[in-house]
Design a protein that fits this description.
This protein is α/β, with parallel strands linked by helices. The chain contains 11 helices and 37 strands. The chain has 5 domains: 2-62 and 648-679, no CATH class; 66-170 and 597-644, 3-Layer(aba) Sandwich (Rossmann fold); 174-274, Immunoglobulin-like, CATH 2.60.40; 277-503, Class I glutamine amidotransferase (GATase) domain (Rossmann fold, 3-Layer(aba) Sandwich), CATH 3.40.50.880; 513-584, Macroglobulin (MG2) domain (Immunoglobulin-like, Sandwich).
Length: 680
């Protein structure tokens, strides 16, 4: 029970103040004039003022409420290092037993695990959620059992009670970390890009170590090892070997006594792009299709085109002096002997042997293909003659042989069964809506695959690999009809673009490929193949464990599946002879960026209400009661602030000055004053 004196005035307080002022003025006048009853009249005024103020005595039936202590238990990934997890469990259990044994005290235990994604330890988010559920007036203290590596301190709330940190970890802990300061998303294939790396030691580092080995691996290949200094920035030049995604892994072997090797690896994924595509277009003679090729290649700003057109063959006799035919001689020797390897693609458009390009030049083109180059032959009627390019040193690498027949007949190009599965011709659209072509060179396939057919299903587009390079043969010179919209036109631009990119080994057009696309910790595994069936894909996780997963065919030649990676790091994929690597999240998650236990991050919030930090390895602290505003922590102890909170069950009010008593006293004092003044 608790009693309190309250006032419930019958008139507003300002009016009551005016009444009091008037009464005081009247008493002052009576005193000035020497009236003997001024004191009695003053007592009457006081009685009236007290009555008007409405004094009551309030009695409350109160039920005391317990104090609440919030204990946040950090169970994030960094707490698994060394024996921190065991320290956390033992400390939290012992502290919970001591708090729960205190009178009038309740404990709320709040576990904090790894956040979604890579957001680190979200202690303040958990604290905000807990404070939203509990009355702030009952919070007597907040205890955080953690290594102190909190990543959301910017969300710290206004604390209602002192906060203390019971810090896990050991004073002798030390760790080595690999940091990548800059990592561009794109880089030009074959050109060096400089990355800035740093090997950094922290904690109780043992003396003597000034260098460390650094291993660099691209796409999961054999690593190269270099010796690097510790504690200083290192500029490392890296050259991307191929287009598309390149996965570069930097790693430092774990040192003896180091806390963890989870932050010894940096995983960089960069897309390799070509700076400029150099294309050599050799036109045997002017024709409408030549402009189509030129417009296609010139429309792409990333293509450097060299166009060589034979305008005046040797057999042409028109009497024009040779020195008036051209301002400069075309540098055939320079192009076909000295700088042929500078080109990414060579296109022979309706070219035939006329003695302009010696056999040694074409033999060099053959070597160019076998060494990794790309050649496209767009055949015209001359391909079926004795002067055909097939009957040159290029013949052995061409995928089809002419039969000497030229078919002058209307036909609609069709995608073959193999072409339905090949990325160059798949999804080109419904071929029954394509326009017709009017000429086809009859050829007999020797190697490679037929992706498109023409008259009576004869081969129209044949692709093949020769040595390290690639060759394509288009057995018609009427593809330009599609670009002119003849008979409705067709996907000429997309077909030729895909064809050129396949020849230049763009990864997305490989007919036999395995790769994955990452979205957070989920990857979409994709297998492109010309086969009807594939085997399961073997996934090797960052911890070395392996599992097999089957893919589903989503379109002809394309198999896919979604897979959630439980760990952050580098995953290896294998299916038959094909392999790929992909990184899910950073190789070193945020939890392992800083691994040494510290109180610096939480110190501003600990000191705001004079809380403290105790190292768990020094023993469990004692618990004391402290008044608000007093130091709440000391050597070997932490303090809780009793809140004395209560719940009011019932309220009873009793008037202290009933009206009849006020009337009797006021009237009596006024009568007494009148009588005294009458005697005078």
């Amino acid at each position: 029970m608790n009693g309190t004196l309250l006032f419930d005035p019958l008139i507003p307080w300002p009016v009551l103040a005016i009444v009091g002022a008037v009464a005081l003025g009247g008493i002052a006048v009576a005193l000035w004039r020497g009236l003997s009853g001024w004191a009695l009249r003053g007592l009457a005024a006081i009685v009236v003022l007290i009555a008007l103020s409405g004094p009551v005595y309030q009695i409350e039936d109160r039920a005391p409420l317990t104090d609440i202590v919030l204990m946040i238990e950090d169970q994030s990934a960094s707490q698994t290092l060394s024996d921190r997890a065991e320290q956390t469990v033992q400390t939290a259990d012992a502290l919970a037993e001591e708090i729960e044994s205190r009178a009038n005290t309740e404990l709320r235990r709040i576990p904090v695990g790894d956040s979604d994604g890579d957001e680190g330890t979200q202690v303040m988010a958990a604290l905000n959620a807990a404070l939203a559920e509990e009355p702030r007036a009952r919070i007597a203290g907040i205890v955080v059992v953690s290594d102190g590596n909190v990543h959301d301190v910017d969300q710290a709330p206004d604390l209602p009670a002192p906060m203390h940190l019971l810090q896990t970890g050991r004073a002798e802990d030390w760790d080595r970390r690999l940091i990548v300061r800059n990592a561009p998303a794109f880089a030009i294939i074959g050109e060096s890009v400089t990355l800035t790396l740093r090997i950094e030691d922290s904690g109780a580092v043992p003396p003597g170590a000034t260098t460390a080995p650094l291993e660099i691996s691209i796409d999961g290949g054999a690593p190269q090892t270099f010796t690097m200094p510790i504690g200083s920035d290192i500029e490392v030049p890296v050259s991307l070997p191929h287009g598309g995604r390149n996965v570069i892994q930097f790693s430092v072997p774990q040192a003896e006594g180091e806390l963890t090797d989870r932050n010894n690896t940096a995983l960089i994924q960069m897309n390799g792009v070509r700076d400029r595509l150099r294309v050599l277009l050799v036109s045997g003679e002017p024709h409408p299709g030549g402009r189509t090729w030129r417009n296609l290649l010139k429309s792409d700003s990333s293509v450097d085109l060299v166009h060589f057109t034979i305008l005046r063959p040797p057999e042409k006799q028109d009497g024009v002096p040779v020195d008036e035919l051209s301002l400069i001689a075309f540098p055939t020797r320079e192009l076909f002997l000295e700088k042929i390897n500078d080109f990414d693609l060579i296109i022979f458009d309706r070219y035939k042997r006329r003695g302009i390009l010696p056999a040694i030049y074409l033999d060099n083109v053959n070597n160019y293909i076998n060494d990794g180059g790309a050649v496209l032959v767009a055949a015209g009627p001359d391909f079926a003659t004795a002067d055909s390019i097939f009957r040159s040193p290029l013949g052995p690498v061409l995928p089809a042989q002419p039969t000497a027949r030229v078919i002058e007949e209307r036909f609609v190009p069709m995608v073959s069964e193999l072409g339905e599965r090949h990325p160059v011709t798949t999804d080109l659209g419904a071929s029954d809506g394509w326009g017709a072509w009017l000429r086809q060179i009859d050829v007999r396939p020797r190697t490679g695959g037929v992706l498109m057919t023409g008259v009576d299903e004869r081969p129209l587009l044949v692709l093949d690999r020769a040595g390290e390079g690639r060759v394509a043969l288009l057995a018609s010179d009427h593809a330009w009809l599609w670009s002119r919209g003849f008979d409705g036109g067709g996907p000429q631009l997309e077909l030729l673009r895909r064809l050129a990119h396949w020849l230049m080994k763009e990864p997305e057009l490989e007919e036999e490929a395995l790769w994955a696309e990452a979205n957070g910790q989920t990857m979409r595994i994709i297998r492109q193949t010309l086969n009807e069936e594939i085997g399961p894909v073997t996934i090797t996780r960052p911890n070395g464990e392996s599992l097999q997963i089957n893919l589903n065919e989503v379109s002809p030649g394309r198999f896919e599946v979604q897979y959630f990676g439980p760990e952050i790091g580098l995953y290896r994929l294998e299916e038959g002879e094909h392999s790929a690597v992909i990184g899910l999240g950073p190789a070193a998650p945020k939890e392992f960026e800083r691994t040494i236990a510290t109180s610096e991050i939480l110190e501003p919030h600990l000191s705001s209400l004079r809380g403290g930090e105790i190292r768990v390895e020094d023993g469990l602290p004692a618990i004391r009661n402290v008044r608000a505003g007093r130091p709440a922590a000391g050597r070997g102890w932490i303090g809780l602030t009793p809140r004395d909170a209560y719940e009011t069950r019932d309220v009873t009010q009793a008037g202290l000055f009933p009206p009849w008593l006020a009337l009797l006293l006021a009237g009596g004092f006024l009568l007494a004053g009148w009588l005294r003044e009458g005697r005078s």
